[in-house]
Amino acid sequence: MRKIISVIIVLAVIVVGAVVLLPSFVGWNQYKGMATEKVRELTGRELKIAWDAGNGSAGEAMADLASRLPGQHILLNEKIDGTFPVHHPDPTVVENLEQLRDVVTGEGCDLGIAFDGDGDRIGVIDGDGEILTDQGFDDYPHIELRRVA
């Protein structure tokens, strides 16, 4: 399961980051198709994932990514709203992950991914509602998450 989670996290960061930062990226649709096919290949099953854009700029890209991935997806705060009506979009602050944690545990999700306001950082919650920090990814040095607890 750690391999699956790490692949999804890496793809989420790459895909959302590319959409937010490089909207005119040539070959973007082909790249998204290739990335989502790789997730299908690696997971071997459908996952249930909760996503939280925190009303930040990654909302539309997050929704597009989720629509292309296999499995069931629950989208939170995907509409861009600079007043951040639900919570501040900083996934390094535990309080900002409470809504996502409640959805992950309440809906029986495999994991939850929260994006910061501009989509270049994430917070991750596992299926048990635990916040994954960089300590949880020691075997995956290419993933860097900020410690939130």
For the residues shown, what is the average pLDDT? 77
Largest β sheet strand count, sense and barrel closure: 5 strands, mixed
Structural class computed from helices and strand pairing:
alpha/beta
Detail the poorly predicted runs.
135-149
Radius of gyration: 14 Å
Strand content: 5-15%
- The helix/strand series, from N terminus to C terminus, equals HHEHEHEEE
* Overall 3D shape: globular
How many helices?
4
Task: Name the descriptors.
single chain; alpha/beta; 149 residues; 5-stranded mixed β-sheet
Summarize this, please?
With 149 residues, the protein is α/β, with parallel strands linked by helices. 38% of the residues lie in helices and 15% in strands.
Characterise this structure.
The protein is α/β, with parallel strands linked by helices and 149 residues long. It is 38% helix and 15% strand. It is built from four helices and five strands, in the order ααβαβαβββ. The protein has helices at residues 2-21, 28-43, 59-68, 98-107; strands at 48-52, 72-76, 111-115, 122-126, 131-132. A five-stranded mixed sheet has the order 2-1-3-4-5, with helices on both faces. Helix 1 packs antiparallel against helix 2. The longest helix has 20 residues, at 2-21. The chain is globular, with a radius of gyration of 14 Å.
How is the topology of this model organized?
Elements: H1 2-21, H2 28-43, E1 48-52, H3 59-68, E2 72-76, H4 98-107, E3 111-115, E4 122-126, E5 131-132
Parallel strand pairs: 1-2, 1-3
Antiparallel strand pairs: 3-4, 4-5
Helix pairs in contact: 1-2
